[in-house]
Structures are given as C-alpha cells and as structure tokens.
C-alpha cells in the first residue's frame, strides 16, 4: 500500500481488533445466571457492539427498573479472561501499523471503557503508539448506534468524517459510523455475517483485516 484515499481511520475494538466476544457473552451469561434470569442467546447478542448500560436502559427484560450502569458494572465483574482469553484478530495489528506508517491518523472508537482499551491496544496488540485518539464509553453521553462516538473520533483527529474510513464488526457500530457521516465503512465478519453487515450499511465486508493489505 503506497497511499490511501482516506484522511483518517476510525477503528472499533472488540470484535474488530480483538477477539473478545466469547468472554463478553460468557460474562453476560454468568451474570444473568447469578440473578436467576433465563435470557436467550439471541437477546444476549443484542449487547454486542454496544455499551451495556445503554442496552439495559432500553431493552425490555428482567432487569427493567434497575440501574443500567450498575447492571453493566456487574457484568464486567463476571469477565473471565483466563477461561476465555482475548486474542488479536488476524491482520488487525499489521493493518493498523501499515496505515500509521504511511501517515494516516488513527482513532479508536469503542463501547468499552478506557482501561480495557489501553490494555488491549498496548498489551495485546502492541499498537497503542499508532493511535492519536481514543474514544471510549467514558467520553460520550450516548454510545453506538448513536453517531456521537464516531463524531467524537473524527473531531479528535480534526478530520472530515466524510473522508474517513471506519472499521466495524457489528450493525450497531456500522450505523453509528454512517450516522456520523463517515464516508467509507468496512465490516469485518468476526462479529456478524456478511449479509447482516451489508444490510446494516457496510460499503465493503471482509473476513479479516489481512484482506485490506493491498488497499
């Protein structure tokens, strides 16, 4: 890759750069079981790509009436990375370094908190130095699919979102990027299948970021 048509790159984290969905879904399952709640897998999947507190606040369930932030914090306490270790998505770190090496500014736009984002980018992927900005759940009042996270990411890089690329693995993330006016949105099938991502609005879908090495 000798150049790119994009002014900046905006990356989701979980499911896009790091394979952590198994740990996340197991945490939700463990927490719900601890409460005696029978929550179907298809309902648990609605939490993918979104801030847990946002979903708890809007999705009907046995948690209705409880504090969404406290519920989300309780789920995090059930994360077990020893049993379900997060791993880099193939080609993710390499593509981030490639873009950074040719001078493309990069921001992270994630529904996770800052502590996890710093750990994942630094300890797991070794690409923290490639990111100019991190937009996490701590930085916007609302999360994906609202445009606020991607608007914040573009603003942090000082770029027009219409000339940027976003990389996502969920429909919630794709819709957030599109609503923010991001000009090109790439879906990665690590989190959802190709038809789902295309129906969600992705301009291009790839199996791994390694496919993007030639631009």
Count structural domains.
2
State the separation between the terminal residues, measured CA to CA: 6 Å
The average pLDDT score comes to 92
Helix fraction, binned, reads: 25-40%
Please summarize the sheet with the most strands. Answer: 6 strands, parallel
Give me the CATH architecture of the largest domain, please.
Answer: 3-Layer(aba) Sandwich
Low-confidence stretches: none
Number of alpha- plus pi-helical segments: 9
Order of strands, widest sheet: 5-4-1-6-7-8
Protein name: Sugar-phosphatase
GO molecular function: sugar-phosphatase activity
Organism: Haloactinopolyspora alba
Pfam families: Hydrolase (PF00702)
Explain what this protein looks like in three dimensions:
The chain has 215 residues and is of the alpha/beta class. It has a 6-stranded parallel beta sheet. A two-stranded antiparallel ribbon has the order 2-3. The mean pLDDT is 92. Helix content is 37%, strand content 13%. It comes from Haloactinopolyspora alba.
